[in-house]
Amino acid sequence: MNQPTVLIVADDAEFPRSLMSRWAKERHAPALTIVNSQTLLGSGKATAEVAVLGGMGQVHMLEILPLLVGDVSVILYVADSGEVNDNVRENCPRICILQKGQGWEDAVVALVSESLRRLDAVERARLAEERAAQQERFAALGRYMLEMRHGFSNALTSVLGNSELLLMEPANLGEEARGQLETIHGMSLRMHEILQRFSSLDKEMQFASKKSQGETGKWPTTLAAGS
Amino acid sequence: MLKKVLIVDDSQAESRLMQQFLESAGYWAVPLSDPARIEQLIDSEHPSLILLDVVMPGRNGFQACRELKTSDQYKNIPIVLVTSKSGDSDKFWGRQQGAEGYVVKPFTAEQLIGEVQRVIG
User: Fold this and answer.
1) Is the ipTM value over 0.90, yes or no?
2) Do B108 and A160 touch (CB under 8 A)?
3) Minimal C-alpha gap between A206 and chain B (Å)
4) A141 & A73 share domain
5) Most buried pick, A15, A198, B93, B98, via CB within 10 A?
6) Which domain covers residue A94, as residue numbers?
7) Which pLDDT score, from 0 to 100, does residue A200 have?
8) What is the rounded CA–CA span in Å between residue A161 and residue B103?
9) Predicted TM-score (pTM) of this structure
10) CATH number of the domain where residue B54 is located
């Protein structure tokens, strides 16, 4: 994940000031974007991993929640008074509500930090799954190529061999036909080289796989044998 | 007198190709597509050398080579394995079965004839 972004939405300037002052004590701080509810409503969208709302009336809260629900992963609301409008929860069931009291800034920083760590872990897991799926596709392709190698070699034997046989008696061929046949023969030899490189690569990969498994104490599994 | 070479390969195209290469180099080639009949053809044709494919249905080349090389009657006939199995472990295994030579498919006329000449002259 790039540097995570935290959106602070507040109409009371003291709210973000307190939070920024608290965050300044942390070794790693996320990128903070501070807006008031009117600016956010005017822009019509919010882009951040986490949003912290506070220092505003609950009516304004209800107006800006729809802008956040789809695009922001974690929404944290620091409520001034003891009671929270039921409509807030109805509009955003997964909102996290924190009552403002002594040390609320510590609680917000801790909650936001943990939320960002969790989001980062989820993103890393998603990327790892994507990479694993891609590796599996490559492995399937590799296995298929290994299985095809025998048939390909046999077919190439005929192409290469028969072109050689024809070239053994050049007197039977016109100049143009001989040139074309030499091209077929040359390209067959090239394909042969490619096949040999593929075999070498397969051998190296088997060696690397065995070495790696040996280091982790696992027995190597049997790889698809060449034919 | 021409030296006779028995070609054992289930692929007619490859068998015919080897036959033409051998004949162009002055050998007498006898093709056989059924590996179960090797001993029968040896008895009737008395070849100087056997070119033996490895991947064949019923009886693979390694198995046939091992059986011929453990037979008092046939063990002195040189065998060259001709196969697309190109790994070092395959070549090692071929030698373990008693084969005198090994040619990897696809091969050139020079490679095939070179190996035949190396083994039987």
Assistant:
1) no
2) yes
3) 11
4) no
5) A15
6) 5-100
7) 74
8) 14
9) 0.60
10) 3.40.50.2300
